[in-house]
Amino acid sequence: MAEAHQAVGFQFTVRPDGVDLKLSQDVIKNIYLSGVTAWKKKAIQFKNGVLAGVYPACPSSWLIVVIAMMSSLYIRVDPSLGMIDAIKDNLPLSRDCMSVQTRAVLSAILFATGLWLFLIYLLRYTLKALLSYHGWIFESHGRMSTSTKVWLSLVKMFSGRRPLLFSFQASLPRLPVPRVDDTIRRYLESVHPLLDSDQYDQMEVLANDFKNSKAAQLQRFLILKSYWATNYVSDWWEEYIYLRGRSPIMVNSNFYIMDLLYVTPTHRQAARAGNVVHAMLQYRRKLERGEHAPMRALGTVPMCSTQMERMFNTTRIPGVYNLVNDQSAAGTGSSCVFATQIPWARTRIKHFSHGVNKVSLDAIESAAFFLTLDDEPQGYDPAKTNSLDSYAKSLLHGKCYDRWFDKSFTLISYPNGKIGINAEHSWADAPIVGHMWEYILATDCFHLGYTEEGHCKGDENKGLPYPTRLQWQITKECQDAIGTSYLWAKQIADDVDFHGYLFTEFGKGLIKKCRTSPDAFIQLALQLAQFRDQGVFCLTYESSMTRMFRDGRTETVRSCTSEAVAFVRAMEDPSVKEILALFRNAADKHQNMYRLAMTGSGIDRHLFCLYIVSKYLGIDSQFLEKVLSEPWRLSTSQTPQQQLNLIDINKFPKYVGAGGGFGPVADDGYGVSYIIIGEDLITFHISSKFSSPDTDSYRFGQHIQRAMLDIKRLFMPENDKLEQHGEFVQLKNGKKHI
After folding, report:
1. According to its UniProt record, which residues of this chain constitute the active site (predicted)?
2. Domain 497-599+631-729 maps to which CATH number in 3.30.870.10, 3.40.50.880, 1.10.443.10, 3.30.559.10?
3. 612 vs 8, 471, 557, 621, CA distance in Å?
4. Closest-CA residue to 497 (of 258, 700, 716)
5. Which listed site, 219, 277, 303, 690, has its alpha carbon 20 to 30 Å from 62?
6. C-alpha dihedral sign at 448, 452, 453, 457
7. How would you label 627-645 residue by residue, b for 16+ Cβ within 10 Å and e otherwise?
8. Looking at residue 678, what DSSP letter applies?
9. Mind listing the pLDDT tens digit for each residue in 447-478?
């Protein structure tokens, strides 16, 4: 009974002589400490809100302006040009309440405050105007013009000192709405290599008809939104692409990030999970206080930090959507749609909205994040050819019931000490999660560390509460719903064909010596691999970021250009000369398209928003319908690395991450994620579906390897190139199964 008494915060007994009240000192102490912690947190958030609100100035600058104005009263100099006297004469206070001197002092303070606020807004809008200039992006790498150097100096001067995470938010420019003519011209240019002459002529007619009839009206509403909202794309992108989608987010939306490639700090699962959780909570505390440094391109140009706000204590809540009554939805894959999101929403309402189930579900959905202690070891093993394949599938979908896919992210810990993340996509994009992940890995390995036995360092805290088992009451009807959803989920997971491999022949170092962009090099290699794998070209998606604008997220780079097609065809035709010139032309084209996407002149987000406006207005557009229905059979993305530079990979070359990946976007296509690691390593994550007879992830990986090597040979001396002309990698004919 002693344990039961200690578990009660206070107890009282009614006696004839009164009430005997006993309070637990431990509980009172913990209540007090909790209150102190909460108020400290509120105070820090208030302070950071003030600091971010007046940035690039600082609160102490207000005092300087006030002192300057007060000093002017005594030396009889009026820098306000009579405005202080005007304020004094119009103060809504009785002259009997204050002396003349007091009224003068108050007027000077009010004028100084107004002047200070005016200067803040002047600095802020000057910085915003400077950040609206993007000419520096279009300059050749390593060659900075004098005008760009001057511009960078001005940005540094107006950026203030020691900014907090959200200090630059109010100074970031708005994402511009491109001209309809420019977007349609670029769109037609992007599909020209993918269509025959009749198909292209038909598309051109549809595009011109849209441009001349409906586009102007839709554009006006979009421009109006761009002035009213902080970003004309992001809210609709989140709502219609992510939250209103009815397909299962497992495999189709969520993505994963892997652990360090070569290093496992400890092989004790509990120790690794404990340190990583500790590091994550440290990151969350710094995030709440705004203490992380804002990300900046070139170390100077700030990028938006909005996506980081929902990293922790966030979950995706399913809702019942009227799609269930829409007969038009009954098409390919509709049974899978109805068996996932809508049943979960209904089951959640019926079985998890009351009693112990609601309490347990609330505990999960309000938690900082979800932690899974997996029971099967994973990780990269050079002795096993498919170790990355198995690792990727485990992170992407697991056993289908041991990941909480609706949480902002699930931390997965394996019994051999490896870890990884499965992230929900609606709240943020991969670079945001990658930022946190780099901090976690560096803190775990180099700051927290482990003992020689592999245990966490530090002293045991016996005052921490023990874990509490969540209680569930699962009825037969609920079990049946869970079983049905599990079968559908397992069918989706089993269909994922993954292949991950390390390309070690060369990396960024050699590519840069060839005076070309590593990303353009890889994208052209992917186009060559795609053509060799499928025999045709396809619409290709490459993700680019727009975070130099307020609330910016992503834009699409359509990598399959006419220049890329010309290069690939030349590579497959031995009679064609000057292939290197075609490669450079295609690489330059790709780089220019990437820069246009980054600076708000992309194609797809503009067309997407025009489509949304057309639906709101009830305007049918055959052109927009056709554009939005085109399948992306090759979807690609580069995983960013070294955003924080917390680990010197030159000094610690083994402490590099393996990157991450995602599931295939199209049923008959490929998803390819790659990370350029250091100077000599590129890791590829390739996904497709076993159910497609036309795709094979392992085969595609072999095609990528061959394409990379073939492009490298273009930069070799002519005699070496001819000598190695016949070299190639023999491909497998059959499909690989896991």
Report:
1. 425
2. 3.30.559.10
3. 57, 43, 21, 11
4. 700
5. 303
6. negative
7. beeeebbbbbbbbbbbeee
8. T
9. 999 999 999 998 888 777 788 899 999 999 99
Instruction: Please name which of 297, 574, 259, 564 lies closest in space to residue 388, comparing C-alpha atoms.
Output: 259
Contacts of 84 (CB under 8 A, 6+ apart): 69, 78, 104, 107, 108, 111
Count Cα neighbours of 41 within 13 Å in the Cβ-side half-sphere.
11
- The values of phi and psi at residue 628, to 5°, are -75, -15
Domains 178-246+602-629 and 255-457+471-494 share a fold: no
DSSP structure class, residue 446: I
Residue that the structure tokens 């096993």 belong to: 384
Q: How far apart are CA 588 and CA 562, in angstroms?
A: 12
Domain 178-246+602-629 CATH superfamily: Choline/Carnitine o-acyltransferase (1.10.275.20)
Peptide bond preceding 173: is omega within 30 degrees of 0, i.e. cis?
no
CB 427 within 8 A of CB 310: yes
Q: Could you tell me whether strands 419-423 and 540-545 are parallel, antiparallel, or unpaired per DSSP bridges?
A: unpaired
Residues in the chain: 738
Give the start-to-end residue ranges of the domains of the chain.
Answer: 55-161, 178-246+602-629, 255-457+471-494, 497-599+631-729
Q: Which residues pair with 501 in a beta bridge?
A: 684
* Residue linked to tokens 């400890």: 266
Concatenating the DSSP letter of every residue in 520-584 gives HHHHHHHHHHHHHHHSS---EEEEEE-TTSTT--EEEEE---HHHHHHHHHHT-TT---HHHHHH
State how far the Cα of 59 lies from the Cα of 53, in Å rounded to an integer. 10
Lowest model confidence (mean pLDDT) among 115-124, 390-399, 670-679: 115-124
- Of 235, 217, 126, nearest to 175 (Cα)? 235
| Residues belonging to the active site | 425
pLDDT tens-digit readout, 251-277: 999 999 999 999 999 999 999 999 999
Q: Does domain 255-457+471-494 have CATH number 1.10.110.30?
A: no
Stated as kind and residue range, the H or E segment containing 21 is strand 18-23
For the chain, helix, strand, coil in percent to 5 are 50, 10, 40
